[in-house]
Design a protein that fits this description.
Blueprint lengths: L1 H4 L10 H9 L7 H10 L11 H5 L13 H11 L4 E6 L4 E5 L5 E4 L3 E3 L4 H10 L18 H8 L12 H9 L11 H9 L7 H10 L3 E2 L13 E2 L9 H11 L5 E6 L4 E5 L5 E4 L3 E5 L2 H8 L7
Antiparallel strand pairs: 1-2, 2-3, 3-4, 5-6, 6-7, 7-8, 8-9, 9-10
Helix pairs in contact: 7-8
């Protein structure tokens, strides 16, 4: 299952991007055990094959950014575990988070912190073993907590210079999603993980865009009505296994290549950037979302019904 997810012996990706984003969004301090685990497994999703409702709901996503802005939850879980925990992923379709101690003990964090095994390898064995059945470890149907984004959106204000680059509402949405003026995070984690999949080679336009907007997004929220926004997430690893789709979209768009920058509409549309900065959206077919990165950001943060 791990090999199908993209793991191989000796796999090693840099963890700098994840560390930088988490340091922006809480007092998360990476330790060696977390770096080793994420270097080997970061970015992978352990779907069963063929995927079904059980293996999908119990899939483990080694995506530490799901814990962004949840440092209080992790601090509380660390006190229960008797040692600080660093986030390394999610389980239970996001209802459970995974954290690891400096000693390498992997914990499942929900309403309490539960150690999964005494070593990471044993914990992975346990996590993989339960994916094919309705095991007690999982709680089907338990909803994930309301994303912290919405609390931030209620509290954050647009910047004083909003309106110069984009609208005040876009500025507010971006700030709630993790953007700020002058933001520049390392993109090496994303670049290396996708390059190691043998499919994607980044260009300068995508690198600049992801350095400023990578890991920014707006989560889905029910009910979806005319006052809502279409969910999106700017994370190129969402296209980890779909290079053929991105290549097909580039061919339809008539451009040499597209580099994935994220998804929107709850995974129904890929977002990808051409070398000239134009942003395209699509899945089976493609359309030009915007000719420039800033216009694309403006479109992504526009309310439904505003055109």
């Amino acid at each position: 299952m791990l090999r199908r997810a993209g793991w191989r012996p000796g796999r090693a990706v840099p963890t700098s991007t994840w560390e930088a984003v988490l340091s922006e969004r809480g007092a998360f301090v990476a330790h060696d055990a977390a770096r080793r685990l994420l270097a080997e497994f970061g970015g992978l999703v352990t779907y069963g094959w063929p995927a079904d409702s059980i293996s999908t709901s119990s899939a483990v996503r080694f995506d530490p950014l799901a814990a962004a802005w949840q440092e209080e939850r992790f601090a509380r879980a660390g006190r229960e575990a008797g040692a600080p925990l660093y986030p390394v992923g999610t389980a239970d379709e996001g209802a459970g988070l995974l954290g690891v101690t400096e000693e390498g003990v992997l914990h499942l964090v929900r309403d309490r912190a539960e150690p999964l095994a005494t070593t990471v390898d044993q914990a992975l064995d346990r996590l993989v073993a339960v994916q094919g059945s309705q095991a007690e470890l999982w709680r089907p149907g338990v909803p994930a907590a309301l994303p912290p984004f919405w609390q931030r959106f209620d509290a954050v204000q647009a910047g004083a210079d909003a309106g110069e680059r984009w609208s005040a509402e876009t500025d507010r949405m971006l700030r709630a999603g993790g953007w700020y003026p002058g933001r520049a995070i390392p993109t090496q984690t994303w670049e290396d993980a996708l390059l190691q999949s043998g499919e994607y080679e980044i260009h300068d336009a995508a690198r600049r865009f992801l350095a400023e907007f990578g890991a920014v997004g707006v989560p889905h929220r029910d009910p979806l009505d005319a006052t809502s926004w279409l969910e999106f997430r700017l994370d190129p690893l969402l296209a980890f296994w779909d290079a053929e789709i991105i290549e097909d979209l580039a061919e339809q768009a008539g451009v040499d290549s597209l580099y994935p920058i994220g998804m929107r509409d709850r995974g129904n549309q890929y977002l990808a950037m051409a070398a000239d900065g134009a942003v395209y959206a699509g899945m089976d077919s493609v359309w030009l979302l915007a000719p420039t990165p800033d216009e694309a950001v403006q479109r992504l943060t526009r309310r439904l019904g505003d055109g």
